UniProtKB/TrEMBL annotation:
This is AraC family transcriptional regulator. InterPro entries: AraC-bd (IPR003313), Homeodomain-like_sf (IPR009057), HTH-like (IPR037923), HTH_AraC (IPR018060), HTH_AraC-typ_CS (IPR018062), RmlC-like_jellyroll (IPR014710), Tscrpt_reg_AraC-type_HTH (IPR020449). The keyword Transcription regulation applies. It comes from Paenibacillus helianthi. Residues 187-285 form the HTH araC/xylS-type domain.
Length: 287
């Protein structure tokens, strides 16, 4: 199957089974992720065509055709337009349960792709050809749905991780990260938020601390990360609250206070908005 024959959108979901795999393909003009994005699944993103901006954890990257983007579990990320219309991309979400059937050695090998310093593997043409042949075969199976296509999808998703792991072992990081001065400034601000989420974080204070006007900080933060300033602070605090609710016996009130929410009712509202459930329900579901 040629990429031009692939439907504009494909969705495949095995999360209800023990395989824990989701696959998406999209062909779009312009698109920016609007939903808050962090999840327990490991994510592999491949760009067939176009150009995208990708914010991952605390850095911003420009993604080009032939790039594989690798995002670990619960890592905040967001894609946005890079100003060039039109792109084709493929996404695979691997639930942690996907790896349970492998030996410890093989599980470590496959998961290793998500723990590299650089989350982007840039492929040369001779590497892209066999990879895209694998992906196009997979997309053909998902489009036509012949008997056993689900089995093919699981094996292809595994082969994709194995291909990536071997390429990463074979070569040096293929994307040399050279942030612009603005990206460096925003990365410093993001890291400050990560370190100080339990304290009051106001736009006035950070603009003074980092010697940048409030309006410029707000505009550049959104441009580089894809998140609004307050939106990102709330997201960081809720992620920490989720961790404390899962890993400690602290009361919900104490969790709220330790994560920088001065108002308990505001904490409950923001938490439910981002998590889909209340803090108490989240603890119950994850205990």
């Amino acid at each position: 199957m040629d990429i031009g024959q692939v439907p504009d959108q494909i969705r495949f979901d095995l999360t209800a089974s023990r395989n824990g795999l989701q696959i998406e393909f999209d062909r779009n003009d312009f698109h920016t992720m609007t939903e808050t994005h962090f999840h327990r699944e490991y994510e592999l993103y491949y760009l067939f065509s176009g150009e995208r901006n990708y914010f991952i954890h605390d850095r911003s990257f420009t993604v080009q055709p032939g790039d594989i983007v690798l995002i670990g579990s619960d890592i905040v990320h967001r894609t946005s337009d890079a100003g060039i219309p039109g792109y084709e991309r493929m996404l695979l979400y691997y639930d942690p349960a996907f790896f349970d059937g492998f030996s410890a050695e093989h599980k470590q090998l496959l998961l290793s792709v998500f723990s590299h310093e650089y989350p982007i593997l840039r492929l040369k043409l001779q590497q892209r050809l066999p990879l895209e042949a694998l992906l196009l075969k997979l997309l053909g199976e998902l489009t036509e749905e012949p008997p056993g296509y689900e089995i093919h999808a699981v094996h292809a998703a595994t082969e994709l991780l194995l291909f990536t792991a071997r390429e990463l072992l074979r070569q040096e990081p293929s994307v040399h990260y050279e942030p612009t001065p603005v990206q460096q400034k925003i990365t410093a601000i993001v890291r400050h938020i990560h370190a100080s989420y339990a304290e009051p974080l106001e736009l006035d204070d950070l603009s003074s601390r980092f010697y940048i006007s409030k309006s410029h900080l707000s505009r550049m933060f959104k441009e580089v990360t894809g998140f609004g300033f307050s939106e990102y602070i709330n997201l960081t605090r809720v992620r920490q609250a989720q961790r404390l609710l899962k890993e400690t016996g602290l009361s919900v009130t104490s969790v709220s206070e330790q994560c920088g929410f001065g108002n308990f009712s505001h904490f409950g509202k923001v938490f439910k908005q981002l998590s889909g459930v209340s803090p108490r329900e989240y603890r119950l579901f994850n205990s």
